Amino acid sequence: MTAGSGPGTLAAQAAPPGTAGGNGTALITGGAGGTGSAIARRLRADGFRVVITDVDRAAGERVRHDLQVEFIRCDCASEPDMRHAVRLSGPVQVLVNSVGIRGATGAIWQIPVDDFRRTIEVNTVSHIVMSQLVAPAMMQRRSGAIIMIAYGAARTGAVGRSPYGISKWGLLGLTESLASELAPWGIRANAVLPGMVAGERFAGSIALHAQCEGITEQQALDRIMSRTRLRRLVDPAEVAAAVSYLASDDAIGVTGVFLDVSGGFE
Predict the structure, then answer these.
(1) Is residue 135 domain-shared with residue 204, that is, in the same domain?
(2) Which of these ranges, 28-32, 96-100, 131-135, 225-229, has the smallest mean pLDDT?
(3) 249 with 159, same domain?
(4) Which of 48, 151, 164, 265 is catalytic?
(5) Phi, psi at residue 25, to the nearest 5°?
(6) What is the C-alpha separation between 46 and 215, in angstroms, rounded?
(7) What's phi and psi for 137, nearest 5 deg?
(8) pLDDT one-digit tens code per residue, 138-183
(9) What does residue 70 show for φ and ψ, rounded to 5 degrees?
């Protein structure tokens, strides 16, 4: 008996779309983080069977317990791990590529090339691999949605965080390519671009901006808010709401779109 095929595995328990499983299975990478867990909460409320993956076992188990979702420990820098996660998940109706690392920081000319490779491997290549793994079954069903969490850095860059910005920029090209190539099978591919999201990472981002630009943290925050039309941070639940829309039948005619959820950051 192969991994993921026995009666006690996640795949065996998965319900296909339109059955008692509600809307089918939503697989969320990086699902134990602040934004990932908010997406998991929302899609579960929408009626999906939700499976999250994360490299942090303790955090994943907490989210599994708190939200009553399924958790698979997975390092998205490892292709075997990703293949294993998809096998255990069973047929995936919605893939949310949310995993991402901050990456190395500093001036672009000072960051070792290997740090760029590591960031791109997790933030970009893993999204390619996961999309490749779920696409064949979606094509057989002629149904499915793939959603990237690309962040505003994909468009604006990020001071002192060039590996991150470059890795997220690549997701826009991936989204467009998937949207074009999967359209004949009715499969949609879109990206959500959050701005500055409230949570644990925010303080670190502000500190980095301040350090790189030689200003105080308050000045860094003021500068970011001055470029944000709504003058506010984004809540993870707002990102989750955008994903919920793109995963739903209400967005059946939406593909190749970059949905900005940044408060109007420019």
Answers:
(1) no
(2) 225-229
(3) yes
(4) 164
(5) -100, 130
(6) 44
(7) -70, -35
(8) 999 999 999 999 977 777 777 778 999 999 999 999 999 999 999 9
(9) -100, 145
Select from 130, 118, 212, 126 the least CA-distant residue to 163.
118
Q: Tell me the CA distances in angstroms from 13 to 4, 5, 8, 49, 212, one per residue in order.
A: 10, 10, 7, 10, 50
The number of domains in the chain is 2
CATH number for position 120 = 3.40.50.720
Tokens of 23: 């809307």
* Same domain? 91 vs 214: no
CA distance 175 to 151: 13
**β-pair partners for 147:** 96, 190
Domain that holds residue 189: 22-197+235-260
Q: Which residues contact 215 (CB under 8 A, 6 or more apart)?
A: 209, 223
Helix 217-226 and helix 200-213, axial crossing angle in degrees, nearest 10: 100
| One domain for residues 41 and 105 | yes
pLDDT for the residue 27: 98
253 C-beta neighbours (distance < 10 Å), count: 7
Q: What is the pTM of this model?
A: 0.85
Please give the Cα distance from 7 to 258 (Å, whole number). 39
Q: Has 164 been annotated as catalytic?
A: yes
